[in-house]
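Every protein is a chain of amino acids, and every chain bends into a shape of its own. Below is the pair of lines this work produces for a single protein:
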Amino acid sequence: MAKRKYKVSVIQLNLNDVAENNLKKCISWVRDAASQGAEVILLPELYSSHYFCQSEDVDNFALAEPLYSTSFIAFSELAKELGVVIIVPFFEKRMAGIYHNSAYIIDTDGTEAGLYRKMHIPDDPHFYEKFYFTPGDLGFQAIETKKGTVGTLICWDQWYPEAARITALKGAEVLFYPTAIGWHPKEKEQYGENQYGAWMNVMKGHAVANGVFVAAANRIGLEKYIDGTEGIQFWGASFIAGPQGEILAQASHDKEEILIAEVDLDLQENVRQNWPFFRDRRIDAFGDITKRAIDK
């Protein structure tokens, strides 16, 4: 019989370092999370490097790695050793000229339970991801692991209710969002509170609308590596929410932390029975959602 309760964890880190050091750091923090009882563990987006998308620079493609190489080998061994599921976001080199912003879902025996490629790719000042990443082609997925059925979406995906809905409809009990989001320092005073609030609210809304648990892992720290710019101040505040949008655990804006919360599938079922949003969906009236715009 499948477990009705299991513990999930998000790890919030400063990752403004080289790949070798970031890998060692993340391995150490995953060990700590597992020692505290975590069974499914999430790292932040593009864990192995600084957030290089602040500029459009072909030299940054050297940060990418082929499938099943360094990151997979290291975390596969770790997952098997610890008996945990690890979600590992990485910069994937699929072939020359095709790169993805991806995440492995590695099961407790070290095998690949699933692979997700980021579907929505942003292009904003200092978030120039379209230069680097081909949009994902594996679709939205609910991935069965030995701990539970999980869905992984990545950062910019978090703004799209369609992504959360489809992943939940496929059976995901938890939506995991590895993330790299922060403030432009010069904008923080004027816009920072609203930007951060919108980020929290949209994902809490996904939890409510779909009756799922939501877990987001963000970076912290100022990453400023381009002359003449102010960089990005990653705002941390990683969190885990329950199926009514209730915050079960939340991190600070500026400290490295491990968050752990329990996924209770009996609670999820009770919430969905009392708020039967899936039952009442008017799927016969939703055809227009697949259009780019609804022209008058």
User: Anything to note?
Assistant: The CA atoms of residues 119 and 139 lie 7 Å apart. The first strand starts at residue 5 and ends at 12. Helices lie at 19-35, 70-82, 161-169, 185-210, 265-274.
